[in-house]
């Protein structure tokens, strides 16, 4: 019996290292396969494989529409209440009466707020790959209001001043009566709505990571995989960006509400993974969203507003134009179009709709082309991303079929 027992124990001792070695080999094979799949998906872009990319994009669009349809059907009670409210509002909107004044005011405010909230969502959606709407829309809007306030000597021009044309009121005030705080109050609604939109854009990664942690399975998302790899490489990380991201993660995890608030309250490009971090560590929803909303829509936006308003104050702009002219060789040639552009904008403030082709110069032309290029790049990135998402579906289906055989 003893001999048999010894003979039974001996193979078990030999099997330990062997199983460990096989486990390592399996992990390496899985990692290599995932890396190859990832490289195959990343090659699916419009400038390399345009036909396949567009084909996969259309198929992914159909899949998403099907998923959303089933989701709406499961929530048909909520959808019914929403449609009922829309029906009642449409009746109120189309019925004549004294209430139309309030309806039109609410409609104007709602569309104005929805416009900026939508731009904010576009800015933060996709974990840093969204459209930079602050540089394209909100920043120029604050700058135009600032220049108009100093030129008109008043902030009583029509609301909203954008995208409607800003016209100085006939009974303009004095330039000395304009202050930074009065301009900040003029653009507060737009800035806060844009900041609220950026906070809303952080929610999808949060819910994705939270659901993945609670279910115990890896979600179908590249950004979550990047987050997991970052956590695995935490020890001995030498890269500054990696260490900075880990610092943000540790602050969010340990400090909680005030850590999230601190990270969201400053212009912080490393905040992209905050939603995944909070979802991964099961931070309560209102702790995460409340701190993010206060930080982005109130604190951070006032910092950004203040920076733009100071930068485009009248005396600062004049100093900038004079400094451009002092640049050797190319200074005078650059100073002239800047001066012409500012003069054209001032003329528009005093004369509604009387700006002619002479007011156009290469600065406005360049800005329009930059906006067009960035919007096109954003659309192309969405097509590529959805095509790669469908390719990942096919890869997972293939792997599941291989396991079942």
UniProtKB/TrEMBL annotation:
Alphabetically, which GO biological process terms does the record hold?
Answer: autophagy; lipoprotein transport
Highest rank taxon of the organism: Eukaryota
Residue ranges with Basic and acidic residues bias: 16-26
Residue ranges of the TM segments: 77-95, 115-138, 251-267, 273-294, 306-327, 362-383
Q: Keyword annotations for this protein? A: Membrane, Transmembrane, Transmembrane helix
Please state what the protein is called: Vacuole membrane protein 1
Renumbered to this chain, region (Disordered) spans 1-26
């Amino acid at each position: 019996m003893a001999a048999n027992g010894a003979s039974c124990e001996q193979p078990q001792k030999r099997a330990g290292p062997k199983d460990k070695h096989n486990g390592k080999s399996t992990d390496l094979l899985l990692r290599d396969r995932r890396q190859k799949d990832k490289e195959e998906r990343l090659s699916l872009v419009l400038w390399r494989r345009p036909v396949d990319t567009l084909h996969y994009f259309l198929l992914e669009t159909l899949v998403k529409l099907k998923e959303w349809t089933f989701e709406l059907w499961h929530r048909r009670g909520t959808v019914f209440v929403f449609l009922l409210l829309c029906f009642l509002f449409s009746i109120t909107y189309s019925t004549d009466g004294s209430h139309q004044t309030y309806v039109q005011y609410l409609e104007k405010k709602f569309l104005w707020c929805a416009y900026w909230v939508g731009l904010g969502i576009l800015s933060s959606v996709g974990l840093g790959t969204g459209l930079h709407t602050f540089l394209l829309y909100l920043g120029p809007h604050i700058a135009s209001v600032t220049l108009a306030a100093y030129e008109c000597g008043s902030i009583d021009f029509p609301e909203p001043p954008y995208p409607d044309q800003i016209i100085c009121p006939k009974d303009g005030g004095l330039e000395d009566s304009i202050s930074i705080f009065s301009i900040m109050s003029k653009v507060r609604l737009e800035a806060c709505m844009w900041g609220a939109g950026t906070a809303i854009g952080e929610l999808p990664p949060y819910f994705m990571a939270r659901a993945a942690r609670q279910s115990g399975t890896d979600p179908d998302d590249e950004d979550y995989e990047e987050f997991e790899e970052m956590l695995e490489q935490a020890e001995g990380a030498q890269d500054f960006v990696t260490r900075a991201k880990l610092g943000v993660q540790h602050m969010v995890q340990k400090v909680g509400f005030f850590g999230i608030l601190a990270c969201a309250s400053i212009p912080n490009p490393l905040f992209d993974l905050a939603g995944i971090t909070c979802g991964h560590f099961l931070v309560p929803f209102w702790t995460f969203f409340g701190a993010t909303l206060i930080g982005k829509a109130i604190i951070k936006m006032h910092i950004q507003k203040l920076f733009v308003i100071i930068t485009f104050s009248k005396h600062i702009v004049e100093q900038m134009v004079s400094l451009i002219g002092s640049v050797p060789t190319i200074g005078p040639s650059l100073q002239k179009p800047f001066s012409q552009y500012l003069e054209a904008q001032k003329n528009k403030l005093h004369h509604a709709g009387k700006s002619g082709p002479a007011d156009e110069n290469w600065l406005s032309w360049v800005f329009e082309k930059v906006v067009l290029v960035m919007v096109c790049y954003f659309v192309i990135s969405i097509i590529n991303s959805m095509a790669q998402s469908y390719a990942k579906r096919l890869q997972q289906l293939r792997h599941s079929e291989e396991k079942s055989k």
